[in-house]
Amino acid sequence: xxxxxxxxxxxxxxxxxxSLKEQVKLIASTFALGILLSLFYGIFMPGIAxxxxxxxxxxxxxxxxxxTFGSMMVLSSVAFFSLPVEKPIxxxxxxxxxxxxxxxxxxxxxxxxxxxSCLLIFILLLYKNFRWKGKISVVYLDIGVLIxxxxxxxxxxxxxxxxxxxxxxxxxxxxxxxxxxxxxxxxERPLLGFGRGAFWDPQSPYAFAAGRQLSSWxxxxxxxxxxxxxxLDVGLIGLALFVAVFLISYVRSLRMAYSSKKQEDIxxxxxxxxxxxxxxxxxYLLRGATIYWVLYLTTAMSLSIKHRKET
Length: 311
Description:
Elements lengths: L1 H16 L2 H25 L1 H4 L16 H16 L6 H21 L2 H20 L5 H22 L1 H7 L9 H12 L18 H8 L13 H34 L7 H12 L12 H20 L1
């Protein structure tokens, strides 16, 4: 509870103290420092920044795990893409930071991060090229959505072959087994959930039972899906409130991205898109003290403040 309060208060401060342009600059600067430190440790202290046992050779940078590193670098690429360019040096800083973020994603060997990065590049380029151009942009957007829907349909239809082609098993390394078990357990406490982190506590019988779905010793640390974990933590009531706020914020972010000529105004839409995609196969919403929850609240509050000013 203390962590949630601390994250919420910091998000409130960040959203009210800094403009959207200042927020993007600070976020990008933070990730630039993360990239530099990861490079330093990767070159001079590889035992710290590069996995040595399992996933040998995969970079984790200054973070705890390669997937976390990959996820952070995807977010870094979004922040650098959203940076405004006011001086010639800003353009160099922007694209060097963006390029280095992509390099770090490759070094992490996180396939999920790579896929999300490619999809985000497509979405961001779509908005960058076709916003601010009147009604014709709506046509292009509809075409883009149609193409994306066709691709998504193909992926969902042929997902077993695709996953096998990526070197994974059809259960996505056991994720779907854990999802099935967790969704069944939500029915036990559907309204208010089990409490934050209680379901996956190492001493929890639920975590023990979930692990036995895959092996006799494994204890899953989370459901590998942020939305399922949120349902387990706060129940369907809390999940419904989150979805409602998310959708309202997302609609506001789309309007901002479509109507504004400021580069930083694409950040809320890009971040919320990333957040939704990133929590399909990983749990990066309310698990632990996390920057994702802070930035989500900051984005939602910043959009709400802007909406009130306009109305």
